Task: structure prediction
Amino acid sequence: MPLLEILEYPDQRLLTVAKPVDTVDDGLRALIDDMAETMYAAPGVGLAATQVDVHIRLVIVDVSETRDQLQVFINPEIVEQEGEQACEEGCLSVPGIYDTVTRAARIRVRALDRNGAPFEIVAEEMLSVCLQHEFDHLEGKVFVDYLSRLKQSRIRNRIEKRARRR
Ligand code: NI
Result:
């Protein structure tokens, strides 16, 4: 299976709002498998379809230490949230940049699994952070959008410098 290309900030395609998935079929499952391979190879703990330039509401995550607990979220919705937690985040689309973002501490999520079956989970700690970060990608949002303007322009400068060196 091929590794997919991951879009990098500030690529405008990362600003696309993803459309709902209407059929969970073998084609979608093939995309999920390619995304999983891409995420594990990166390596990363989460990947949204947006990041591989497919603009549908699909997110995969694996926050386990053993890297064998893939979770698939199709058409995810946060139906409840409470509390606050601040956590250092990074993103495969913003390589080498890490900063602290404050998000809900605990969320209840409703979604479809890779077979199209609905399920609900309550997520806390790292899984909660990771899901909120990935769901943001589906809205065309990256974690640096939460940072101050000054930090955002520093990040853009760093990325431009790096691109010139390539
Ligand atoms: Ni990300």
